[in-house]
Amino acid sequence: MSKTIQAVRGMNDMLPADAPLWEFFEETVRDWLRGYGYKQIRTPIVESTDLFVRSIGEVTDIVEKEMYSFEDRLNGEQLTLRPEGTASCVRSVVQHNLLYNAPQRLWYMGPMFRHERPQKGRYRQFHQVGIESLGFDGPDMDAEHIIMTARLWKLLGLEDVALEINSLGSAEARANYRAQLIAYFEQHADVLDEDAKRRLHSNPLRILDTKNPAMQAMVEGAPKLIDVLDEASLKHFEQLQQMLQAANIPYRINTRLVRGLDYYNATVFEWVTTRLGAQGTVCAGGRYDSLIEQIGGKPAPACGFAMGVERLLALMQDQGFEPPADGPDAYVVHVGELADKVAMTLAEDIRNAGFNAVLHCGGGSFKSQMKKADASGARYAVIVGDDEAQAGEASLKPLRGEGEQVRVPMAQIAEGLRG
Ligand code: ATP
Ligand code: MG
């Protein structure tokens, strides 16, 4: 026998036992998005490598070490499995000129790929639901994004997710701050780890985000961007806070929140939980007013966020969430030559009446079929023997909870299922 082949490390199967949870999540998300008037966009999973380098930024974890990039064997093109959705979404909007005369509220859902060290809540293929609002410049859109996520947590029954916000200001404010920050870090060069030293001149803001305990105290004392924000960003940030207060959404300003992608400016936010260990960020986003232009479009403001589906599902499970049962309404059991003949039509009739039906396939004794009916999670077994078939009838046996088995004309089965 040949050796079995395993899934690629860090890439998971979604097995049928997990489907009810995933489906509940996806359906809840679709309804929720409809409630806010967002439209779905789907983009290819593979894009030109250049798209991500240009948008996410050369000196970021993603571009430096996490991308699955390869050369197309036939034409030598440099391609990458998408590590996130914003760049592709903006690329598509620009390519199809979707911002021509109207702003857009868009969403997407699907797999993303990053070559990270696999651990709980961190995979090499993972899923995101993301939202991008393009062509909106006011804090009202930032507030909408935060308010809508707060609603989603309620719909999913999630507690213990806390909101952190910050403002990264304008590119100019950030450039001034960057110089201050480099000077500060240079004064503390003895505390900087290898990663920080490497980033000192290329991406010093990211050093604020370090998880190294030995650097925490030093980083705490660093100058704060919020203290040197440009006036417009400060006003935007204050207005956003007023809107959050009016909506009764508690938040904490985290001046060290900088996000790992270069395209952000002004508002950034994260929803974090302490229940998932180190992988506590379940949703993150912010404003990226220069990205559309950077990708070759006519300048337009934009903001968005993405959430990690696996982390949200883990949080739901951690809180004991039980997805609704996904058994069919009826499982059709049939034994005997004539019964076998009518069963398929009967199952179709049940479906015509608007119910889900699983038709037993593969034969077997009455007893073994009833076992399968029970295991399917069906509400009712619909039983046909040659006897019933002769008489144009079937028996309806409740499988969950109370109730007697009744024998009724086949035409009345749907009514029985309704009751
Ligand atoms: P982290 O700091 O945890 O690496 P990130 O800043 O790289 O997160 P984003 O690029 O902002 O993450 O992606 C948005 C969300 O997608 C994250 O908040 C997280 O919930 C989820 N996510 C990111 N990377 C992974 C991964 N490798 N596995 C599972 N979920 C992930
Ligand atoms: Mg990351």
How would you characterize the overall build of this protein?
- It is a single chain.
- This protein is α+β, with helices and mostly antiparallel strands.
- It folds into two domains: 16-170 and 229-319, Bira Bifunctional Protein, Domain 2 (BirA Bifunctional Protein, domain 2), CATH 3.30.930.10; 330-418, Rossmann fold.
- The protein has helices spanning 19-34, 49-56, 61-66, 86-95, 139-155, 171-187, 194-199, 216-220, 231-246, 291-294, 309-318, 337-352, 366-375, 386-391, 413-418; strands at 39-40, 46-48, 68-71, 78-81, 104-113, 125-134, 162-167, 252-253, 265-272, 281-287, 302-308, 330-335, 357-359, 380-385, 393-398, 406-409.
- The strands form three sheets. An eight-stranded mixed beta sheet has the order 1-5-6-11-10-9-7-8, with helices on both faces.
- A hairpin with a 7-residue loop joins strand 15 (393-398) and strand 16 (406-409).
- Helix 5 (139-155) runs parallel beside helix 9.
- The longest helix is centred in the middle third of the chain and has 17 residues, at 139-155.
- It is elongated.
- The model has no long low-confidence stretch (mean pLDDT 94).
- The protein binds adenosine-5'-triphosphate and magnesium ion.
- The site of adenosine-5'-triphosphate has 19 residues, from strand 6, strand 10, strand 11 and helix 11.
